Amino acid sequence: MILIITSFSRNDFRSVDDIAPEVLKEPLQVEIDFRQNIRFTKDGYEYNLTPLYEYEISGLVVGKWDYRWFSTYNYDSVFPVDLCLIWGSNMASKVYKNNAVKFSQDCR
């Protein structure tokens, strides 16, 4: 998986004018044929992950929740950041520039 992130201050994403062609495409999701478990321990807890899909995604980050500053669950230190992305027709229509449109994220 390849992920490239550009960071903006809150709502600075509304000033984005130059859109890379990749951001106009839908994400690609491909099922993994051979699923190999990923096992690790962090902060005294054992984790067992089984990846099901590989992803290729290009998008504009319109929201970010950083669990490093405030966390509720033990796994927050393992997966400390959630991103809210838009891509495809939402980018092409430039809906993200409309101040009446609000983006939010909640409950992983």
General description of the model:
It is a single chain. With 108 residues, the protein is mainly β. The chain has one domain (12-95). Helix content is 4%, strand content 29%. The chain contains one helix and six strands. Strands 1-4 form a two-stranded antiparallel ribbon. A two-stranded antiparallel ribbon has the order 2-3. A hairpin with a 2-residue loop joins strand 2 (38-42) and strand 3 (45-49). The longest helix is centred in the last third of the chain and has 4 residues, at 89-92. The protein starts with 27 loop residues before the first strand and ends in a 16-residue tail after the last helix.
Strand and helix layout:
Elements: E1 28-31, E2 38-42, E3 45-49, E4 53-56, E5 60-66, E6 81-86, H1 89-92
Antiparallel strand pairs: 1-4, 2-3, 5-6
What is the topology, as strand order, of the major beta sheet?
A: 1-4
With helices defined by DSSP (H or I, 4 residues minimum), what is the helix count?
A: 1
Shape: flat
Please give the share of residues in helix.
Answer: under 10%
- Domains, number: 1
What's this model, at a glance?
The chain is 4% helix and 29% strand.
Keywords for this entry:
108 residues, mainly beta, two-stranded antiparallel ribbon
